[in-house]
Amino acid sequence: MAKWTQEQYAAKIQEKKVEAHNKQWLYIELNAGELKEECEPGVSNMSPCCKAMVDAMLEGDGYIVEPKIRTKVAKSLTVRYYVDNLSPSRRKYSDVVNG
Fold first, then answer.
1. Please, which residues bridge with residue 81 across strands?
2. Cβ(20)–Cβ(86) under 8 Å?
3. CA 47 to each of CA 18, 22, 91: distance values in angstroms, whole numbers, following the listed order
4. What does the alpha-carbon distance between residue 97 and residue 11 come to, in Å, rounded to a whole number?
5. Taking every pair of C-alpha atoms in the chain, what is the biggest distance, in angstroms?
């Protein structure tokens, strides 16, 4: 069985965000280790999971646990995604932080 791609993780994250939005939740918190195990139990494949999580961050989202390593690839990575506004017009977190 092929390992999940960053795009597959991105789709799963978006699915979780929409589900939480439809429940009228304000935010969800996702942990990389838990998400990876949910999608690929027992498989070593943290990099695409973490990259998808960081890429899915929009303006206003934030790190709950930000790994100290520059690549942000760690099972401890935990992100709070605000799901009250899923408008595609929201800027990416990286665009806001990097100017």
1. 28
2. no
3. 23, 29, 23
4. 23
5. 40
CA dist 98 and 27 (Å) reads: 23
pTM over 0.85: yes
45 closest CA partner among 36, 55, 54: 36
Give the Cα separation of 64 and 84 in Å (integer).
18
Instruction: Extract the runs of DSSP E, i.e. beta strands, from the chain.
Output: 27-31, 62-65, 78-82
| Distant-in-sequence, close-in-space partners of 20: CB < 8 Å, separation ≥ 6 | 27, 28, 81, 83
Cα separation, 19 vs 44, in Å, equals 27
Looking up tokens 């899923």 gives 86
Which amino acid does the sequence have at 97?
A: V
Each residue's pLDDT tens digit, 56-93: 999 999 999 998 877 788 999 999 999 998 988 889 99
